[in-house]
Design a protein that fits this description.
The complex is a heterodimer. Chain A is α+β, with helices and mostly antiparallel strands. Chain A has three helices and six strands. Among the domains of chain B are: about 200 residues, Rossmann fold (3-Layer(aba) Sandwich), CATH 3.40.50.300; about 170 residues, no CATH class. In chain B, about 60% of the residues lie in helices and about 5% in strands. Chain B contains 27 helices and nine strands.
């Protein structure tokens, strides 16, 4: 299957990090947007588990035990699915 | 040891907060600033050490970076150093990649990119203690097998594992590893990432459930939209109050020492020019600045404490919203806050800002964060303004307002300038790692404080001493036979003052204050020395030159028609001038270097000087209109 439709399918069944409730544990499915490379450098990679810690102008997340703050624009580029 | 022996070069690479600088200090024993905040190392530092076999090693501490893609100027420095693209610096013989064991999944990304460069690599698996406390099951041997490079577990801040690391760096260095995940082609992000997951599943198993840590519990309050701000304002206000009040005792000691030395010189030397030079010029001038050493040390101590404990990153997180209104991001907070201590490290710390235009704006406004060199002037004026002795909460409030005035103007100008520079070609977003709260690393804080104190004393002993002697000579020669007032007017300083007076009179100052301002364009602290020299030339030597005395002297100064020179309005006008004027040559040199343009530095100097003059003029003239 071509890569682009597979990604679209993943995104269809996922939600962005902004849409996740505070305290939820999720797994990153797809990164889609201009900030992807930087997000991956910071540890926001596909299949990585994270917990959303707070909402607001910048979101707080815990990725592999590290607390990261990212802007809402960036959080919109992180597509996640609930764990379990 | 053979002097012609070859020195091998090792580069220390790692993510911010991986403990690179701590390891650098543990290996070289060098003095180096440590900060629990991303991007404290913005310049390359180098040191030397010997392996257990006597091989001399030159160690480069590269700026912290998340990847070798070079997204910001400090990351570019690290990448250039690894590829031998920095002039006068050869390619390193080996890379020690410092990896935080408790965040292995994230830090392996950089380690694997380092392996892909084809340089020999040794992995320093740092913070092994933190990882074990977090319940991670680490297998360094397996990790070494999987990556094909030596892996040394470490607890660098306690000095554990440093000897083993030195053993691993013995000569000849290990061969350059083969990046097995490349499969002969260039690595795609995906293949590297998959390999990281495989390696972590084998060598670093993490407990599944998310555990609530002390940091989580503290952050619930310290990052709270209301409680977090209350705490931040309390911390900043407390810092000002502590600087004002804690320094009183050591300042008293310096005053006593100064008076002892002055009295001794007056007793052993006959009256004459040489005694006047020593007492009024050297002891009065240098002492008038040196007395502020305790306050400056305290300021650096508190900034070190905030950085080292991990709170500084939280402050940046909270400040992001406010900074956004000024067209900046939370990442500009550390450079601007560091500028409260000194604009030079602040300007250099702007390298951590990804956006080039935002960086230029931060460099431009950084000198408006009142630096420690302004403190002597503030401490002289603020108690005079309130007619009370030093150390009260009212003075802390005024000082807080002074800092706020500089900061607010900086943010407004940043906003205007950011609008004029236009949007970035590539949009940058706010991303910040919040390190766990840690017990402050006292050893490094005190080292840093002593370094800064040493630099201040050196400055007092060189630049300020030289200027004090020059000022004394200017205010003493040419001599006249009249009384002290006439002698001063006749001197070179008196004549300069007379020339300047028409320009500074609309601000409420006379020629003497104008001269003091003029001399302080080389370094702000000289303002106090100049006043000390200018207002004590008529001393008969029976009194001691100290700050209270200087304050009394200038408080009783008058215009020729008998009006008091220093009214509350004049003092506020003077304060305003010092908040906004850029009177620091070294800062301009660093700005020119960092902005890559002398025009930027010159424009900044002219703009700030004109702004300071106009702001001071506005305050004085409007104040007079309202009858103050």
């Amino acid at each position: 299957m071509p890569a682009a439709p597979a990604r679209d399918l993943e995104i269809d069944s996922a939600m962005t990090l902004n849409q996740v409730g505070v305290g939820c544990d999720v797994m990153i499915r797809v990164l889609n947007g201009p900030g992807c490379e930087r997000l991956r450098d910071l540890g926001f990679c596909e299949q990585m588990r994270l917990r959303k810690l707070s909402n607001g102008r910048n979101l707080l997340c815990s990725v592999c035990g590290t607390r990261m703050a990212i802007s809402r624009e960036l959080a919109d580029q992180v597509w996640v699915a609930p764990l379990g | 040891m053979d002097a012609s022996e070859e020195t091998a070069t090792i580069a220390l690479l790692g993510n911010p907060n991986a403990g690179k600088t701590t390891l650098f200090n543990a290996l070289t024993g060098s003095n180096q600033r440590i900060g629990n905040y991303s991007g404290v190392t913005v310049e390359m530092k180098s040191g030397e050490f010997r392996t257990p076999h006597g091989k001399k090693i030159r160690l480069l501490d590269l700026p912290g970076c998340y990847s070798l893609r070079a997204n910001s100027p400090d990351e570019q420095v690290a990448v250039d150093a690894l590829h031998g693209r920095i002039e006068g610096m050869s390619k390193p013989d080996l890379v020690v990649c410092v990896v935080d064991a408790s965040h292995l999944e994230r830090h392996l990304q950089l380690a694997m990119q380092a392996i892909e460069t084809g340089l020999p690599v040794v992995i320093a698996l740092n913070m092994i203690d933190v990882a074990e406390r977090a319940g991670l099951r680490l297998d360094p041997v397996r990790l070494s097998e999987e990556l094909g490079v030596p892996v040394v577990p470490l607890h660098a801040s306690a000095g554990k594992g440093v000897v083993e690391l030195k053993q691993a760096l013995r000569f000849p260095f290990p061969a350059a590893p083969e990046a097995s995940w490349l499969g002969g082609s260039t690595a795609s992000e995906e293949t590297r990432r998959e390999r990281i997951f495989e390696i972590c599943a084998l060598a670093a198993r993490r407990p599944d459930e998310h555990q609530l840590t002390t940091t989580d519990r503290l952050d619930r309050w310290l990052l709270h939209p209301v409680a977090g701000w209350v705490f931040l304002v309390a911390v900043l206000f407390g810092l000002m109050w502590a600087i004002f009040s804690f320094a009183q005792v050591p300042m008293g000691w310096i005053e006593s020492l100064q008076s002892l030395v002055s009295s001794w010189v007056e007793n052993v030397m006959p009256d004459g020019d040489m005694r006047s030079l020593l007492v009024d010029g050297v002891i009065g001038g240098v002492g008038g600045v040196l007395i502020f050493l305790p306050q400056i040390l305290l300021l650096f101590f508190f900034i070190g404490l905030l950085e080292s404990s991990g709170y500084m990153a939280r402050a940046a997180f909270l400040m992001d919203g406010l900074m956004a209104r000024a067209g900046l991001s939370g990442k500009a907070f550390l450079p601007l806050f560091s500028s409260y201590a000194c604009a030079i490290p602040g300007v250099m710390a702007t390298r951590t800002i990804d956006s080039a235009k935002e960086r230029l704006v931060a460099i431009f406004v950084a000198p408006w964060m009142s630096c420690s060199a302004r403190l002597p002037v503030y401490f002289l004026i603020v108690p005079m303004l309130l007619h009370e002795s030093e150390g009260t909460w009212k003075q802390a409030f005024v000082l807080f307002s002074v800092y706020a005035a500089g900061t607010l103007a900086a943010l407004v100008v940043a906003r205007l300038l950011r609008g004029r520079l236009g949007p970035d070609t590539a949009k940058s977003h706010f991303m910040l790692e919040l390190p766990p709260y840690r017990a402050p690393q006292w050893k490094y804080i005190f080292r840093h404080v002593l370094d800064r104190g040493g630099a201040f004393v050196t400055k007092a002993g060189t630049v300020i001493l030289g200027l004090s002697i020059l000022l004394w000579a200017l205010s003493t020669y040419p001599k006249s036979d009249g009384d002290d007032g006439e002698a001063l007017q006749h001197s070179a300083m008196g004549r300069i003052g007379a020339v300047i007076e028409p320009a500074v009179e609309p601000l409420g100052f006379d020629g003497r204050v104008g001269t003091a301002i003029l001399t302080s364009f080389a370094a702000r602290e000289v303002f106090n020395s100049t006043l000390a020299v200018l207002f004590s030339v008529s001393e008969d030597g029976s009194d001691v030159e100290n700050r209270d005395h200087l304050r009394e002297r200038i408080a009783s100064a008058t215009w020729p028609d008998g009006r008091p020179l220093f009214t509350p309005l004049t003092l506020v006008s003077l304060l305003v001038f010092y908040i906004y004027a850029l009177q620091c040559l070294p800062t301009s040199v660093v700005v020119a270097r960092e902005a890559g343009s002398w025009k930027w530095a010159a424009g900044q100097f002219v703009f700030m000087s004109v702004f300071a003059y106009l702001a001071s003029l506005l305050v004085f003239q409007v104040g007079r209109l309202f009858g103050f």
